[in-house]
Amino acid sequence: MTSALESLIRCLATLLPGELRPSELPQLLTPRRHSPLLDQRRATMIVNRVRLFAFLFAVLTPLWAVIDIMIFDFSLWAGLALFRVLASGAFVCLLLFYRPSGNLFEAYRAITLLFAIPTLFYVASHTLLGSHQLTEFSAAAATGYAFLPFVLMAGLSIFPLTLKENLTLASLLLLAQGLAGYLGWSTLNWPSFAGGFWLLILIAGVTALASMSQLAFMIALLRQAIHDPLTGMLSRGSGEEILDLHWGGAQRNDSYLSLAFIDLDHFKAINDNFGHDAGDRILCAFATHLQNNLRDADSLLRWGGEEFLLIMPNTDMAQADQALQRLMQHGLGNRPDGSPLTASIGLAERRHDQAPSCHELLELADRRMYLAKQGGRNRIYGHNSLATQQA
Fold first, then answer.
1. Is 165 within 8 Å of 115 (Cβ atoms)?
2. Tell me, what DSSP letter sits at residue 341?
3. Does the pLDDT value for residue 138 go beyond 80?
4. Homologous superfamily of 234-389
5. What is the pLDDT of residues 79-132, one digit of tens each?
6. In what order do the strands lie in the sheet with 234-235?
7. Are the C-beta atoms of 174 and 200 separated by less than 8 Å?
8. What is the pLDDT of residue 348?
9. Rounded distance, CA 112 to CA 244, Å?
10. Any idea where the domains of the chain sit in the sequence?
């Protein structure tokens, strides 16, 4: 299983050579490793495109009834018109009641509803058409309904989806096509049905590549927009947005959220004595070392100069303090002269400090960082409101 996954990742690397880094390719397969910020941007785009699709379907679906009345007898037309009105009403509800919130699960619900409505219409209309005797002309016109699954499958390509998400939705459309064939079993033209089903699978494959290509561009552009060009860490420009996301989740779940404000000690002396290039190398080495020792859920931001902000969701004050103590015990790197690199850290936690907002929690961590400096540097200030000297 692992070798198959690695082969798939290598294949994606050859298809998208200039868009993603090798470490980012697994993000095209499943959303599990996506950052909260990517989830938010992707959820917003998905819902906006769902609403655009819903608007088009809400307008075009009932208009086709004008063509139906010229082709089918009244009883069949009335049944199809009823299905169209119901489908159009559902699209209008989707358009009116869904707004982008940045929540990925709401985006999943929106796109599922978007494709469920025409799929149900397709199955219902296919069953109704199969129960009526059609003339040669009306039978030819009825084949137009058979194109709806192909339109829906192709429509998936406008959404930035992972392979797993795309295959899930495509499988539902293929299942609906199979169900429609089962309901028309007695009159089914098997060669035609098999050819159409194979074409639908082919379109699903092309659509999956198109969706992943969109996602790849989004990942690459987001990386460039939110990362610090020197260290590669998240930038301050994206910091408040990321912090707001974590704060909102912590409030909804009443969970812990710890912030650590980190300032490298006597960093100006490095620039003054060894030059800014040496200072840049120290910053990069420190950021990489710290990032390599963090959990996947943690977010490290370069706040400015030699200041960094560490966001630790689902981490209480004691756990955050222990994690930072371990980092400092293992060392933060070396200065150009070989002496140990140290840092002053201010620590704050949402529930422990009863912070009313994420901005006040951030300010509290910032103030405690200055208290750590005033207390002699090379220490953490926060746990139990006491400065802990790093041995």
1. no
2. P
3. no
4. Reverse transcriptase/Diguanylate cyclase domain (3.30.70.270)
5. 888 999 999 999 999 999 888 888 899 999 999 999 999 888 888 887 887 777
6. 234-235, 299-304, 307-313, 257-264, 343-349, 379-381, 387-389
7. yes
8. 95
9. 27
10. 2-226, 234-389
